[in-house]
Structures are given as C-alpha cells and as structure tokens.
Write a structure and sequence with these properties.
The protein has 322 residues and is mainly alpha-helical. The chain has one domain: Ribonucleotide Reductase, subunit A. It is built from 14 helices and 4 strands. The chain is globular. The N terminus is likely disordered. The site of one fe (ii) ion (FE2) has 9 residues, from helix 10 and helix 11. One fe (ii) ion binds next to helix 10 and helix 11.
C-alpha cells in the first residue's frame, strides 16, 4: 500500500468527534492527541524485530487525516472466500496471480546506498521537517497494509490457501516498503517503533465490502502517485533531493499488482459492485478517498513544492488516471 488507506474521513468515530465537516479540519489538526513513539516507549514494549537503534524520538500527530490501521470481520471474509459457498471465485485467476507474487520481482530492489544519509544531511529547515513527516506518514500507511494483509493471510489459510498466500506475499511487500521508509527516517536520526505502534494504536473497523473498496483504491492511487513522482523527477533531476524517489518505479509495480489482486477479488464478489446500493457506496468511497487525499496534500504543499510539483495539478493527474 502506498500513501494508502488514508480513509480517515470515513471513520465514523472521527467524523462524529469533528462534526464541523471539512471546514473544521484546520482546528482538528491543532487539537491533536499526541501519539508518542519514543525510546522510553520502546523500552516499555519492545518490538520483536531488532530494527534500527532508536537514536531519537518521533511523534505521529493523530488527526482526522492520519493514516490509520484497519481491521475487519474475518469470519465474513472466510465465508466470502470459501469456494463451496461462492461459485464466482475464479481460482485459475488467483493461481496465476499467486505465481506472479511468488516471482518476487523486487526481492533485491530495496538496497540502500550512502547517497541517502548525505542527502538527508543536506536538508535543512522546513523542508527537512516536511520530509520527516512524509517518511513517517508513508511508513505508517505501508505498515497499515502489512498488518491487515498479514492477518488476512493467516485467517484465510484453511478456507482458501491460494488467496491466503497472496495476502501473505502482499504483506511481505508492504513490510519491505515500510522498512525502507523507516530506514529513511534513520537518515534523519529518527525511527518509528513499529512493534509498539502495532500494539498501541487504535484500529478502525470496516466491513469486508468497504475494505475491498478502500484497499483497491489505495493501491491504485499509490501506484499513480509513485509513478507520477518518479517520472516528474526523472524529467527534472534538479528536484531529486532525496534518493528514495529513484526507487519508486519498481516500487509502484508492487502497488499495481496489489491493486490487480483486489480487482480480481471484487470481480469474485459481484454483489459488491452490481446493485444500486453497491454502486452508490463505491462512488461514495471514491469521492471520500479523493477528498481525503486532496486535503492531506493541501496541508503539505511545501513538500510537493519542495520536489517541484504543483499540489493541485499532481492530485488532479492522479485522480484522472485512477
Ligand atoms: Fe506498499
Ligand atoms: Fe500495496
């Protein structure tokens, strides 16, 4: 998942708390609950993975637009992927997708080099700050995908081993993406404690139908965001301020494959696409995701300008392509 699952507007609890609608967003941003990930917090709940040493601390500001962690009705998921109940499941298509995921095209792609640290050291002032925020948010969003896919892989093992294995392999990809972003944070002497985040953060519940809409959109949006940034920086190398963007071309292919898998999943559940209620819901999701993305990006124009992009044009391009 890329800047994925940024569907906070759809969180009923959040919308209730901030019932001032979209106009209330700047206020919501200020009245944040601070979620602290620090060296002391890490000591209280050590993660299983060793990871980079925490040489600093970083905080995620929990706002209406912060990337969230998701959970779903796993029993319903098991019913949906039971081939005896659902005759629409195209097992041959899932077998083919599984082979593609097993190929693991990006196994050796995410290798760092000394350019990263040097580029981070050159960054100063507001750009440095906005870059750190970009890395934190992206890492959280990727990690959110990892957690959800990992659990789906675990829960669907008995019902549909092929679909389950694809979920597990997608969680492999997302863990790689999150890990790479977290290593980026280490260039700024920071690290997100992902083990602690897993335990301490609240999870937002979505029914399977909404998980499908949300993840499909997130993956496709992620693909278009990454490839657009990559192509822009290739054409305008003077804005290449940090080498992580050079990895986006192959990286976004992971997101594209994830999106294709969700497309196959949705085809196997035509009830989520075909009746008038489903059509309304999917349109509502589309609109909500686009609005959330746009609001998020508008709050971070400094980041997009820092890499030579016009935020509005960038978002319009991504929305049109998706
Ligand atoms: Fe990802
Ligand atoms: Fe993904």
């Amino acid at each position: 998942m890329a800047s994925a699952m940024e569907l906070s507007l759809l969180n009923p609890a959040a919308t209730h708390r901030h019932r001032g609608g979209l106009a209330g967003l700047p206020l919501a941003r200020r009245s944040v609950v601070r979620f602290r990930v620090s060296a002391s917090a890490a000591a209280a709940a050590p993660p299983k993975s060793s990871g980079p040493k925490k040489r600093g601390k970083t905080e995620i500001q929990e706002t209406l637009l912060t990337p969230r962690f998701y959970t779903t009705d796993f029993d319903e998921m098991e019913r949906l992927f039971n081939a005896e109940i659902n005759k629409q499941l195209n097992q041959a298509e899932f077998d083919a997708l599984l082979q593609e995921f097993k190929t693991d095209y990006n196994q050796t792609h995410f290798v760092r080099n000394p350019e990263f640290k040097a580029a981070a050291d050159r960054m100063e002032g507001p750009l440095r700050q906005i870059f750190v925020e970009f890395l934190e948010r992206s890492c959280t969003a990727e990690f959110s995908g990892f957690l959800l896919y990992k659990e789906l892989g675990r829960r669907l093992k008995k019902t549909n081993p092929v679909v389950a294995e694809i979920f597990s392999l997608m969680s492999r990809d997302e863990a790689r993406h999150a890990g790479f972003l977290n290593k980026g944070l280490s260039d700024f002497n920071l690290a997100l404690d992902l083990g602690f985040l897993t335990k301490a953060r609240k999870y937002t519940f979505f029914k399977p139908k909404f998980i499908f809409y949300a993840t499909y959109l997130s993956e496709k949006i992620g693909y278009w965001r990454y490839i657009t940034i990559f192509r822009h920086l290739k054409a305008n190398p003077e804005y290449q301020v940090y080498p992580i963007f050079k990895y986006f071309e192959n990286w976004c292919q992971d997101e594209n494959r994830h999106g294709d898998f969700f497309s196959a999943l949705l085809k196997a559940q035509p009830q989520f696409l075909n009746d008038w209620k489903a059509k309304l819901w999917s349109r509502f999701f589309c609109l909500s995701v686009y609005v959330t993305m746009y609001l998020n990006d508008c709050q971070r124009t400094a980041f997009y300008e820092g890499i030579g992009l016009d935020t509005k044009e960038f978002d319009m391009h991504v929305i049109i392509e998706v």
